[in-house]
Amino acid sequence: MHAARILLVEPRGFCAGVEMAVKALAWLVLRARGERVFCYHHVVHNERVVARFERLGVVFVDDLADVPAGAPLLLSAHGSAPEVAGSPTVTVDAVCPLVAKVHHELRAHAAAGQHVVYVGHAGHDEAEAAMAIAPSATTLVRHPDDLPDLGGAPVALLAQTTLAVREWQAVRDAAAERYGEVWTPARDDVCYATTNRQAAVRAVAPRCDAVVVVGSASSSNTAALAAVAADADCPLVLRVDGADDLPAGLHVGTVAVTAGASAPDAAVDEVVQALGGRVEPFATVTEEAYFPPPASLRRLLRGDPAAVALLARDRHLSADELLTHVERVAAGWATQAVAR
Q: Catalytic residue at 54?
């Protein structure tokens, strides 16, 4: 695929929650010094990021029984069921603070006697974790037609943070019509990064012959970006993991390139280079959100002066920079092991 002109959309790619989680796992690998590190579920929904950690020896598991006693274990950005998050085997919980907020709200409203209608995708890690908090007081819905008859019970409406904004709004409006007074958060649960990326795609799509969304098929917010572009009547919308997924022999005029919140910059750069056109920025808002490393991780690294010095720069250190540093250090471990 070749484009004459590329509109490189901003914001795109890693959000603050993904940055924090990827850096947390990189720190655990660094601290383990060549020993195996475990992660409950994929740290983020991106195959390239997961593969990069697997090359560093990280083992991704879906059952805590698969984690050896005493092994370092990180919980993913999507949140975990209470019995998992409270397990003594957990070393660091890298749940996104915005997901943790939804969990807190769900717990509080269920305890107050409200029935929680949770808008999300069945089977998604984030939705599965949320539904496990108060299963008898929570109903999972995806579409307005899924809304249950609650017999006049008070209702609170919460959402998976990576939804398409239109999905949340459609259910929210239908719930208000069906139940009357419904508690909703003062600020929608759909996260700022998801909202910003969708708004940027909505603005750029009408100007383009094609929109390329970089991100894995397992990423809910990546799928939402592609759906927003299609809803904006863009003639061609492609979801790709990288340049190898671009169709061969296709020539188009103007292509917008964006990326889901778990897609690494390297994949975007690869796609832009393959498209080969003149690159122009297309910026809507500037994101400045920053989530510091989890407190449990900071306590874990407290006795390592080199780690403490690097942690002091965390706000200005990207996940890719830290992961590249860990890969260089890990190469040294491998060399030492061969020498022994």
A: no
